[in-house]
Structure to design on (132 residues):
């Protein structure tokens, strides 16, 4: 009887840990998704948004694997390049404007792919499950 109670207590404690880890991972993912959403909605990545992204990914190494970290670094670079392209496009008469317009489109589309790519990368970490 004591062994059964100890096992149930262990399972309850373990379930709490699993749920707490899920909650923390979900909060990180939602912060990142919210920032990506803002960039997609506005087509820009101003400094304030970029700094928020940096804060949002600060905890990623403690909760996700290397593949997620590498992916989020690519998104960070796309945000930087989107901001650069938007800035460079402001020169309406510049001979390189068409190049920057294309670059902006490419960077924007790479950021939009977050919605397709992120679930595959984050998904394995987001499963709150308890085995028997």
């Amino acid at each position: 009887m004591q062994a059964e109670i100890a096992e149930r207590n262990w399972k309850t404690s373990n379930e709490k840990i699993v749920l707490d880890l899920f909650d923390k991972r979900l909060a990180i993912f939602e912060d990142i998704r919210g920032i990506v959403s803002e960039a997609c909605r506005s087509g820009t990545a101003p400094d304030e948004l970029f700094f928020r992204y940096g804060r949002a990914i600060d905890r990623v190494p403690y909760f996700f694997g290397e593949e997620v970290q590498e992916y989020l670094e690519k998104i960070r670079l796309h945000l930087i390049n989107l901001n650069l392209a938007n800035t460079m496009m402001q020169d309406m008469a510049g001979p390189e404007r068409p190049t920057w317009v294309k670059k902006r489109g490419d960077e924007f589309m790479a950021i939009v792919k977050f919605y397709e790519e992120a679930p595959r990368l984050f998904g394995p970490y987001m499963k709150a499950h308890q085995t028997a």
Notes: The chain has one domain: 2-126. The mean pLDDT is 91. The chain has six helices and no strands. Residues 2-42 form the longest helix (41 residues).
